[in-house]
Amino acid sequence: MNSEQLALTGWGRTTPSVASLVDISADELTQTGVLERLDQSGRGIIARGMGRSYGDPAQNGGGSVVRISDGKIEVNSARGSVRVGAGISLDTLLREIIPLGWFVPVTPGTRFVTVGGAIAADIHGKNHHVDGSFGSHVQEMTLLLADGTQRSLSPTGEHTNLFWATVGGMGLTGIILDATFSLIPIETRHCVVTNERVPDFDTLIEKMIASDHLYQYSVAWIDLCATGSSLGRALLASANHASLDELRVMNPKQTTDPLAYSPPMLADIPSVVPNVFNKLTIKAFNELWYRKTPKLQHHTETLTGFFHPLDMVGWWNRLYGRNGFIQYQFVVPDNAVDTLRSIVEKVAAHGHASFVNVLKRFGPGSGGYLSFPTSGWTLTIDIPSGVDGLDTLLNELDEMILGVGGRHYLAKDAQLTPAVIRSGYPRLDEWKAIRRTVDPNGRWASDLARRLDLL
Amino acid sequence: MNNAINQPQTILVLGGNSDIARAIVAELSSPALKTVVLACRDAASADTSGFANDVEIATITFDATKHALHASMIEEVAAEHGDLDVVIQAFGQLGLDVADDPVAAANLVTVNYAGAVSSGLAVAAQLRKQGHGTLVVLSSVAGVRTRASNFVYGSTKAGQDAFATGLGHSLHGSGANVMTVRPGFVRSSMTKGMQEAPFTIDVSDVAKAVANGLKKGSSVVWAPAKLRGVFALLKFAPDFVWRKLDS
Ligand SMILES: Cc1cc2nc3c(=O)[nH]c(=O)nc-3n(C[C@H](O)[C@H](O)[C@H](O)COP(=O)(O)OP(=O)(O)OC[C@H]3O[C@@H](n4cnc5c(N)ncnc54)[C@H](O)[C@@H]3O)c2cc1C
Prior knowledge:
The structure holds 2 protein chains of 2 kinds. Chain A is α+β, with helices and mostly antiparallel strands. Chain A has 2 domains: about 75-185, 2-Layer Sandwich (Uridine Diphospho-n-acetylenolpyruvylglucosamine Reductase, domain 3), CATH 3.30.465.10; about 190-415, 3-Layer(aba) Sandwich (Vanillyl-alcohol Oxidase, Chain A, domain 3), CATH 3.40.462. Helix content of chain A is about 25%, strand content about 25%. In chain A, strands 16-12-14-13-19-20-18-21 form an 8-stranded antiparallel beta sheet. In chain B, helix 1 (about 20-30) crosses helix 5 (about 205-215), helix 2 (about 70-80) packs parallel to helix 3 (about 100-130) and helix 3 packs parallel to helix 4 (about 150-170). Chain B has 7 helices and 9 strands; from the N terminus they run βαββαβαβαβββαβαα. The interface of A and B includes residues 7, 43, 414 and 447 of A. Flavin-adenine dinucleotide binds near residues 117 and 176 of chain A.
């Protein structure tokens, strides 16, 4: 065990709090009396993965923040599943399983998340409309409870409620020690990708509705600086895993070792840089991004190129400077397209949204009490934290979103209020009740939980 | 917990009827603000009017001279209302007529300085425990260089200011912060009827400077900002010049 008093933030680098950050093996963590010792301050304990959530869910000011420092990967090829320690990252896992012909059932826009973080936030990927969120693929997991005992949870077993309270439960039901989940078989490390420039919002919506069921993966990078007749212009990317036959036809040079996987790292952003994003640079970036893609492109891309392009630059979050940034992600129902358009108009008029703005259509939710994904449109907006008028803008968006029955993503949130979360998550009280049965004395706590009144 | 745009959820005001503190609360108000706790010599005397509708306004008794009660009062507030994001130390007296009255002067010291030290330490212990939060100390330029006309008051502010900046250093790395605010002459009910000095400002100006300082994470804020340069010079002005300026 290794512990250090440290100021921690999420990926957005906005609200630091100082806690004791503890790196500990699963073995040591589960020994008797260890949780009591970690909770000596009385401020509680929370698990942390790789700190890739944007706000404060993996922080716990004055208390303990625990990272599991070891873990095994056991692939079961016959069943197409894997059992993984919760502290293992998707990066490590992918390096192990891709060469064996498997892919994770869900990946976010970065490989640098842990299995524990993936379950706790019930993360979604570009395949949500087809495959659902991460929690839907979990067959079994081991949860360390507040009293130090362990419980094996499955989606339909004896402890089904606790399973679905833990999926999306932001670490507040206990510490996930390991999980078994299904994998996707692949023949190559490539995808067959169709990229298409879409000139405006209405065309984008039409195209996504018409075509996304034809692809396993589908997502749109939307230019939130464009206004007028270009409002909502986007690059729509749709893809399937490339079979060996497809690769032979489309990219024969890559067929020699089709499952070799070594994702490139191009650069690291140094720790102190001024905020490079302002209205001008953001607009220029979006313009370039839109123009760089041909009108219609059909080709193969590597898994890294398609799923994790941002990972090629380490610590890109530092580009936002000292004030950090906010990622605002919400979902509104399928029929709320007009509201979605008004939101895009509002954000474009404000002019500060930056470059990772993504529109995606979700399929049905997983069943997690606090799971974010649910049928409808989800939009992700990055905005530097210091800009003028941000609070007013976000408050207006909150109202519009809640007005049509939408909700916000806890793994991204850093500025919502308890009332907004309560309104977006009608099962919050049921979740709290389940949580209390396994944590009656408040052993688990996080800054997010305190800020949003989740406990 | 502050949100990502630096808006606090819970504010405690020591000296809950202070005009400047109330202006700061107004400046820091947002939909994120849940609770404001007004700590006054007599809880019943706290003026709970004038705050945004959906904010819970709580009151508690706080006597700056009852040092023994400060720690338990802070603990009680935190137990009831959760983490304290911003605590404003705003109590104090001007003590205009104390220069010829040793007992009254010592009492002023007990309120303005000893009270600031004991309540400041109690707040610091809580913020350290939380791993986050900021103590905003309303000091004064009167303590930067004391004047013949209010040197006892000025000396209490000098003590409070030195305490606050030192406390800030001692909290470095704990997640807790101290921001020392040095306003010049501020038009408020405390200074009503007094002759205005150069660079006189309104409470709302101080409030804006404080909000801005919190956003930037400043350890010292002058209000108006110009006073920083002015006092850099005045501090070293020869005595006869200083006396002349003061007359
Ligand atoms: C560039 C980028 C792109 C992203 N793209 C997507 C995306 O496309 N889709 C998506 O859904 N998300 C996305 N995210 C968000 C990210 O997937 C989630 O925030 C994820 O939870 C981060 O995992 P982590 O291991 O870093 O966990 P942390 O951020 O460290 O923690 C997140 C939560 O998980 C809990 N937790 C961590 N480990 C455990 C454990 N062992 N047991 C119990 N609880 C635990 C923590 O307590 C915390 O509440 C993206 C993030 C970034 C930075």
